[in-house]
Amino acid sequence: MGDNDCLNALRYHSDNIGCVALWGSASLLSLLEEWSWDIKGDDSYMPKVTIIVPTYNEAKLIEKKLENIYEQDYPRDKLEVIVVDSASTDGTPELVREWARRHPDLNLKLIVESVRKGKVYALNHALKYATGEIVIITDVDSLWPDKETLVRALK
What we know:
- The chain is an alpha/beta fold.
- The chain has six helices and four strands; from the N terminus they run H-H-E-H-E-H-E-H-E-H.
- The two termini are 29 Å apart.
């Protein structure tokens, strides 16, 4: 199905759409930006968010990623971070524990898998422990550009 087919389907079914998943289609994103959804939001509402970070041998980057999340301008009591490590051999879990001790005001859970079973398994494992209304999955090497990234993504 091409972008035009998707656009026509969205236009046709616009009254019945409850949720639209987008995977980077420029045409769909453009349509959604122009579309008047008539949704009245509460700008003061901040949902509880769980951020899941899957890791495997990420010792070189994990602390930078955790700092990147920590720097977000979002209430600490509404933020939960779950690092799920898939049997790293480079000390990644130890670095996460050490970082968490230095940042006790952030709710950080570390799940250490004894056997590497792949990213999908790790994410499903982590989701069992997520308590947020919204779950965000981010890789260690994907740094957010500024401290407002999370807030903008949730609007």
